[in-house]
Amino acid sequence: MTGRRRAESVRNDERVLRAARDVLTAAPAASMAEIAARAGVGVGTLYRRYPSKDALVAAIWLDSIRGLDAEAGVALDRARMYPWGAFVGFMTASVASGAGALVATLAGTLTPTEELVAAEQRLRAAVGELLECTQAAGAVRPDITAADVGVLFEQLRAVRADDARREATLRRRYLELFLQALRAPGAAPLPGPPPAAGELGRR
Question: Can you give the pTM of this predicted structure?
């Protein structure tokens, strides 16, 4: 495959994933035919790339994780000079991107592949490194872990409204509340330790 054709294939795949996110977010039971129509490709083309709806959802899941991982990397680069701003930027960009929102709805029907498990482990490590950097700088309260951040994202994804703009506004509102609580030194100590791996389960 030439470089031009490879780039075109990547663009087509990105378009399909965006269309799938849009369609499945609005209607999780939507068919592959509906997704193909939104993406502007034939259903046969879609099935050649993703042999089942589960395979497509797994691809969205992986793409979402990689997007959050990239956001954490950008924030870590900035955190050495602007620790609090970098942390706020990561949290804000991650919520605004919607990464993981659809997965939170559909992932319970899937068994994570080794690739997905490895990607999630890398993401937790990246968020942990960002936290360590910002906590060492005195920007983020010291009793917060990557597991806590993951739970906060789940809570923000649970915010729903009939109007998409209102929903986004509400998520920004509660994100701001979380950020005020996360900033060092914190108003008061937190009761109990953060959740252990697997303690809360996949919801």
Answer: 0.82
